[in-house]
Amino acid sequence: MKSKRPFGEIPDWAKKGPVTLRNYDLRSEWYGAKIKEWRDGWPFLSTDPEYPATADQTAWEAYFLKQLGAFPPSYQLFKRGVMRAYNLPDVKPELFDTSYDPRPKLSVIRNVMLEPPE
């Protein structure tokens, strides 16, 4: 029988290398519990009007799609309405994953600027 691991104690493989779709949930847990020590104060998204979100949903969705290539399974539950709140490792993704640059690439900006308006 497997023993339950303490919250924030993640396998070594999940701590190594970049954040990926495979290790996101574990890395997020480790970062929030061990690095930031959020305890009960985690940044979160919410669909409940009594509890407004404390994190930037647009920024996180862009991160998931641009950096990870898809929404993590945990976030998919939130998007489908299974959960009314969703904890995140930090307010903005670039604070959690320093390899992430939320700015659009210059080439994308140039292409948009060169195209004539419709």
- Detail the poorly predicted runs: none
The strand line-up of the biggest sheet is 1-2
* Secondary-structure class: mainly alpha
What fraction of residues sit in β-strands? Answer: 5-15%
Sheet bearing the most strands, described?
2 strands, antiparallel
How many domain modules? 1
Order of helices and strands: HHEHHEHH
* Cα end-to-end separation: 63 Å
Average pLDDT confidence is 90
Specify the helix fraction band: 40-55%
Topology of helices and strands:
Elements: H1 12-15, H2 24-35, E1 44-46, H3 57-68, H4 73-79, E2 85-87, H5 93-96, H6 106-114
Q: Your description of this structure?
A:
With 118 residues, the protein is mostly helical. It has one domain. Helices cover 41% and strands 5% of the residues. It has 6 helices and 2 strands, in the order H-H-E-H-H-E-H-H. A two-stranded antiparallel sheet has the order 1-2. The longest helix is centred in the N-terminal third of the chain and has 12 residues, at 24-35. The chain is globular. The protein starts with 11 loop residues before the first helix and ends with a helix. The mean pLDDT is 90.
